[in-house]
Q: What sequence folds into this?
């Protein structure tokens, strides 16, 4: 035996040894896994059947009883029919004799499988055979008046089979039947055995044939569940690899911790809610009779002009089912006593949630079997009411006259007629309510549910007050002015006959205060939450901050303008900022960045269908950026990139007499924009205030921001990007030339999970504002009294109107005696007073007749005055020169580390604080400092620093003495002398910013000059 042979034999032995070792290891691992397994898939399956049988009263059937050709258990079907409808069955048996069962099964099959047919419709409405109505299920009666119906409801038969052969190649873990008809299929996986719901989804997509009778769309199972021990997913339509599964999970955690998935329990499985709740008889019948429906969508093919019809079988997601059931339970107990805030993120299926709620509220009875609401009014702040909502409601129940949509062709008189009539559901716009406050009579005996679609700030002002006044049940009053005002106040608050249900993804503090519920910690919060965090984690919306890039713009202003003292006024600064915004070089540089980023990074997304939105700062900007965009595309010879523009009204550019409109630039009417943008002709939409909210375009992948965005406006604007675009794995991109990533992240924080309100508008805050207005000396109490007598008179003649105008003119002239900035502050204080007082009326039973009279007068005065700055005759046109523009790329943010900051506060009417106007002025100065110095001072930090300096100055005895003994002009000499001492005192905490102020007299006077007047007034009046 030579050496080579010895080596070969040795290698062979080694290979056999290795193979045997591998087998032993695999066998050992298998045994170990088997022994270590807590639960097998088969044991899980048996456990589920046991729960359904013992806890829920299901009948466990053998799989051999399944008729795969009709997806039916014949024995259970005919037991139900014979038990519940014996007379009908006896009648039909005489006609069809031994063929009766086959005839009925074949007829049901024909009705469910025809083009416009479905199992859900057959279950809801039954079938008709030889002029005999055959019911296939019985729903729960709305009242207990009919014991026969209650008995038949209890005779519905629920049964379950395991290991069901749907075809020769398809064996299903569990199938659930209602009265013998297959309604649900389950593929179960056990995490303890090394598999999850994802394996079940894979099984449905790859091993289940959509043409198999059990899975046939609309005719087979209503829903198919992929379920393990931790999570549940569902689909209503099997479509091979394209099958789309939705999560059917409770959500994990509460409030700020809420996210995707299910909670972990010590003593039961995370998915136990399925057999404890969802798979109970009552819930299944509720789902079938009140929730599941066929959604029909029709779309006109632009090339052929033919209408394309598509259908979806809608099954509620868990949070939709949960919110409807919880609201109904609360209303059943409390009647019309409460308002409800529903904070549901974009991607929550809000349209269907509103449709389900409206439909259920129309037939909701209390414990005494009395109907709770006479009418359900759906209010939207969009100009045209969503037709999709009407289709969803009609899809749930085909009843003539059930719903009426008050579209843009309807006038307020039509709405008044509908409210007085018998239409159960009325959909309208909020704009129509103010016109019918005084015209709708005899509504105090009716009870209303008002569902507000996308509740925003418009719901906290006069429009919302008009709703409660129209529908409210205030008592009849005498003609006395005092009584009439008191009654008006009562009607403005929460009415005993009206409950409001406000849906929004981004509730403002006023919305939370108006509709929120008090929690155990004394905070106001939403009644029900489906958070942005959960929606992102569940894949219904995208995290729009996942690819966020900052750009900064630097420039240099010519020395002549910088040194001109007339250019240091606020008006001049605004002109300079406007000049920079519209500067050709600045625009050209930004357009190059935008186009090249879109061309190289974005446009190939979504199979080449990706689109982008450019958020411009003004209508003039929109026009100039559109021109620059088209010029750059033409110069580069790029193909496949074209832009549309969106803005309202007409626009003229500097040094250009031509008038521009959206339609003239786009080449088609405004109402065609959304359809045109959806085509492959256009990729980019440049907007100025339009389409920043409520615009739903799933193909939007990128946003280029050229405008300051704050708070809820930032969230709503960037959320235009968050729609998923199946079947593509969509990515989003944000290039921001104005805002910082931290600012945008802070804007999202309150809405990321749940939003809580920690404070409230109080009467004392409103009285503080009243005192501020009184201090201006512009309101004569006698004039207020006389004006209110006129306002509440039965008939107002011409002389009285002239007299009312005289009172307003008198106050206006008193305001104009003040210098311009004081005039602006006075108007701002009056607006705050009106806003806060209106809000207080709606959230409380506050009543002060004298204050209400003042509110009436101030409201009319604000409408009457129109203060304009005299301008000083100085014009910067043609005098500003800006050079050395640089667009500097900042940090790329690739993963959005959003952290919830749920507690919000109402804007408080502080007696002494930084007003909105002053904060805006300070913000403009800081923006200018950042642009000119290349710094990046945070506006919030600077504001806090300035308030700190103000407080230091407020404690100065020297300044207090000066304020008492001097005019404000003389006071400012000592004021600015003391600023350096105050800056040094705060230097350790704010070193960089304070150092800049210490070394720059001009900036120092600009920033801290903001406070000189209020410190003077406060110290002069100090005791």
A:
């Amino acid at each position: 035996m030579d050496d080579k042979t010895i080596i070969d034999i040795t290698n062979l032995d080694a290979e056999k040894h290795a193979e045997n070792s591998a087998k032993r290891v695999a066998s050992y691992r298998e045994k170990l896994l088997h022994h270590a397994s807590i639960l097998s898939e088969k044991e899980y399956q048996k456990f589920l059947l046991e729960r359904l049988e013992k806890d829920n009263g299901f009948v466990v059937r053998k799989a051999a009883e399944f008729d795969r050709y009709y997806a039916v258990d014949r024995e259970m079907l005919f037991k139900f029919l014979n038990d519940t409808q014996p007379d009908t069955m006896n009648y039909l048996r005489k006609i069809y004799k031994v063929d009766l069962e086959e005839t009925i099964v074949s007829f049901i099959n024909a009705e469910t499988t025809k083009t416009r047919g479905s199992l859900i419709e057959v279950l809801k409405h039954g079938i008709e055979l030889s002029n005999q109505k055959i019911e296939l299920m019985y729903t729960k009666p709305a009242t207990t008046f009919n014991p026969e119906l209650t008995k038949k409801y209890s005779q519905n038969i629920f049964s379950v089979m395991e290991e069901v052969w749907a075809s020769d190649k398809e064996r299903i873990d569990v199938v659930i039947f209602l009265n013998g008809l297959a309604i649900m299929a389950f593929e179960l996986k056990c995490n303890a055995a090394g598999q999850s719901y994802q394996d079940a989804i894979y099984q449905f997509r790859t091993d289940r044939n959509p043409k198999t009778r059990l899975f046939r769309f609309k005719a087979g199972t209503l829903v198919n569940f992929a379920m393990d021990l931790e999570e549940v997913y569902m689909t209503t339509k099997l479509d091979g690899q394209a099958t789309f599964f939705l999560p059917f999970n409770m959500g994990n955690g509460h409030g700020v911790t809420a996210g995707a998935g299910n909670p972990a329990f010590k003593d039961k499985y995370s998915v136990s809610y399925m057999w404890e709740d969802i798979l109970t008889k009552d819930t299944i019948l509720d789902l079938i009779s009140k929730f599941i429906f066929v959604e029909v969508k029709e779309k006109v093919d632009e090339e052929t002009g033919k209408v394309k019809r598509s259908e979806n079988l809608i099954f509620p997601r868990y949070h939709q089912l949960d919110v409807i059931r919880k609201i109904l339970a609360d209303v059943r107990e409390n009647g019309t006593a409460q308002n409800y805030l529903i904070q549901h993120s974009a991607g929550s299926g809000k349209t269907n949630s509103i449709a389900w709620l409206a439909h259920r509220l129309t037939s909701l009875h209390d414990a005494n079997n009395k109907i709770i609401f006479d009418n359900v009014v759906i209010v939207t702040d969009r100009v045209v009411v969503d037709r999709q909502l009407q289709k969803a409601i009609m899809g749930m129940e085909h009843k003539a006259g059930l719903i009426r949509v008050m579209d843009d062709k309807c006038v307020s008189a039509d709405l008044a007629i509908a409210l007085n009539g018998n239409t159960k559901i009325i959909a309208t716009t909020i704009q129509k309510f103010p016109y019918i406050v005084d015209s709708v009579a005899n509504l105090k005996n009716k009870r209303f549910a008002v569902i507000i679609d996308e509740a925003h700030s418009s719901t906290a002002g006069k429009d919302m007050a008009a709703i409660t006044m129209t529908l409210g049940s205030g008592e009849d009053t005498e003609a006395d002015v005092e009584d009439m005002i008191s009654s008006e106040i009562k009607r403005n608050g929460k009415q005993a006959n009206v409950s409001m249900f406000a849906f929004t993804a981004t509730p403002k503090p006023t919305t939370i205060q108006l509709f929120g519920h008090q929690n155990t910690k004394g905070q106001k919060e939403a009644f029900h939450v489906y958070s942005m965090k959960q929606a992102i984690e569940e894949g219904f919306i995208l995290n729009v901050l996942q690819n966020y890039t900052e750009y900064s713009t630097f420039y240099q202003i010519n020395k002549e303008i910088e040194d001109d003292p007339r250019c240091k006024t606020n008006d001049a600064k605004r002109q300079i900022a406007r000049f920079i915004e519209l500067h050709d070089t600045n625009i050209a540089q930004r357009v190059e960045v935008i186009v090249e980023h879109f061309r190289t990074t974005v446009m190939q997304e979504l199979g080449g269908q990706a689109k982008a939105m450019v958020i411009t700062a003004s209508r003039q900007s929109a026009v100039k950026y559109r021109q620059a965009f088209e010029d750059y595309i033409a110069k580069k010879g790029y193909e496949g990139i074209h832009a549309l523009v969106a803005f309202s009204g007409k626009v003229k550019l500097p040094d250009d007499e031509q008038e521009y409109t959206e339609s003239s630039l786009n080449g088609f009417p405004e109402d065609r924009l959304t359809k045109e943008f959806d085509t492959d002709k256009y990729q980019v939409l440049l907007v100025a205030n339009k389409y920043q909210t409520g615009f739903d375009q799933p193909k939007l992948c990128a946003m280029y921001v050229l405008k300051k965005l704050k708070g809820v406006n930032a969230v709503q604007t960037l959320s235009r990007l968050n729609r998923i675009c199946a079947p593509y794995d969509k990515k989003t991109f944000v290039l921001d030339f104005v805002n910082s990533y931290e600012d945008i992240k802070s804007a999202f924080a309150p809405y990321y999970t749940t939003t809580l309100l920690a404070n409230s508008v109080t009467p004392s805050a409103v009285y503080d504002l009243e005192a501020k207005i009184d201090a201006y000396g512009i309101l004569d109490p006698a004039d207020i009294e006389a004006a209110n007598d006129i306002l509440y008179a039965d008939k107002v003649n011409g002389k009285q109107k002239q007299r009312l105008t005289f009172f307003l003119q008198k106050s206006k002239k008193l305001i104009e005696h003040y210098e311009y900035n004081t005039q602006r502050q006075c108007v701002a204080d009056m607006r705050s007073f009106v806003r806060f007082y209106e809000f207080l009326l709606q959230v409380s039973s506050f009543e002060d007749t004298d204050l209400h009279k003042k509110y009436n007068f101030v409201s009319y005065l604000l409408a009457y005055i129109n203060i304009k700055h005299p301008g000083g005759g100085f014009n910067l046109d043609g005098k500003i020169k800006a050079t050395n523009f640089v667009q500097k790329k900042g940090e790329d943010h690739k993963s959005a580390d959003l952290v919830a900051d749920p507690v919000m506060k109402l804007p408080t009417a502080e007696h002494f604080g930084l007003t909105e106007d002053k904060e805006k002025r300070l913000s403009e100065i800081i923006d200018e400092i950042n642009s000119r110095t290349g710094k990046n001072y945070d506006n919030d930090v600077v504001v806090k620093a300035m308030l700190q300096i103000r407080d230091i100055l407020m404690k100065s005895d020297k300044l207090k003495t000066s304020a008492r003994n001097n005019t404000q002009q003389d006071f400012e000499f000592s004021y600015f002398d003391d600023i350096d001492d105050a800056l040094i005192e705060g230097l350790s905490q704010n070193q960089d910013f304070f150092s800049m102020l210490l070394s720059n007299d001009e900036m120092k006077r600009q920033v801290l000059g903001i406070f000189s007047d209020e410190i003077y007034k406060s110290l002069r009046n100090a005791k």
In short: Residues 912-1021 form one domain. The mean pLDDT is 80. The longest strand covers residues 882-893.
